[in-house]
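Protocol step 6 of 9: fold each sequence in the batch and record its structure tokens directly after the sequence line. For illustration, a two-sequence batch is reproduced in full.

Sequence one:
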Amino acid sequence: MKPARTLKHIEAPYTWSQVKHGEWMAKQLQAHLDEWCPKLFGYHMLKLGGLSCELASGHCNIQHQVCIDQYNPLHNVIADTLHLPFLKKSFDTCILAHQLDYCNDPHRLLREVDRVMVDDGYLILTGSNPVSWLGVKGLLPWNRKKYPWRGQMFMPMRVKDWLGVLNYEVVYSEKFAVLPATRHLACSAWAESALSEHFPSLGGLYFIVARKRTYPLKPIKPTWKLRRQLAPLRVN
């Protein structure tokens, strides 16, 4: 297993049009995000990266939403994702759409996101599954310089282990998008439903929803008090 941290600079895409089958991938992720947006509550939402900015979340109960990117026109804050200019426990929900795949230090990115997340906040992660048609196409030499194969691909179970170290509880996880539906939409939809039912682990994309939990470092034990024994009174 290769280490997650790399010294190579990875330039992340700032729009789905830069990614191969990007528009179709965005529609697949948007369908899952629409199911979870009504379940999210709070005051502030953070969307990291241009790919996250282009996912619609206007019907979410969280009205104040901060989008961070450098080149995407939908951003409202320009900042380094590894040094977020926010105080601790500032956001109730954070969306990272394929941000771990294009980060040279994903562990550090998760720790920085955890710093600005409130207790019991929701973290939504998406990425590319290497054990899929998407990962196999990345082995071809003419695809290595294209998105999404230009970045890294991590197994969903590995991402869940990282979240477990940070005391996050995975409340939802799914792999989908087995085949791209760019042509012949009716046939592609039928093949997608058939393959996803029998081979769910071969989905090209994963969607993880985790909730931040806070556990005490030392369990608090009840204080047991001994009953006072009855003693006869002394008579002077």
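Sequence two, same batch, same settings:
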Amino acid sequence: MPRAGLTPDRLVAAAADLADEAGLDHVTLSALARRFRVKDASLYTHVRNLKDLRTRMALLAGGEMIDRIAAAVEGREAGRDTLGAYAGAYRAYALEHPGRYAATQIPIDQDLVADSPAMRRTADITYGMLRAYGLEEPDLTDAVRLLRSTFHGYCALESTGAFGAPRDVQASWDRAIDALHVLLRNWPHGQRTTDA
């Protein structure tokens, strides 16, 4: 019989907390079993395996992150104001919840992504923000990849203290967002994808 009160949601929430405390790599079924004072085998009633657990963590964290972003961009003027709010909420979540954020970077089966309301909401908000710059496919996907790469790279470096110059990190972040805004307003539409 499963331990009273032990549910998939409780397990995933505990795993997310453990990831924030100790790092995503330290989230194991054994570590969770110790946290709940149960045998490892009893967790398989609630999750199939470690990959299933981490996928659920990724979906949980993705939902939390987009909730924060949605609240930040609500009512903002399209353009630099929305981009800055979006980016700021992204960065705050990544720095405050490093383990959860790491979970959002793992590959997830595309069928699960398509079935996830949080992932659909993320796409709607992100693509909506970029459509306000006049972008259409395939430029939308290229712009999403650019923003994600920039935000992730900055947060990854900042979280490890890799920015050693005396320049204020927030000031550099603000300038990066300014530069992205200028780039998005002046996106090179219709450019060739290869050099001939």
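Proceed to step 7 once all outputs are recorded. Observation for sequence two: The radius of gyration is 19 Å.
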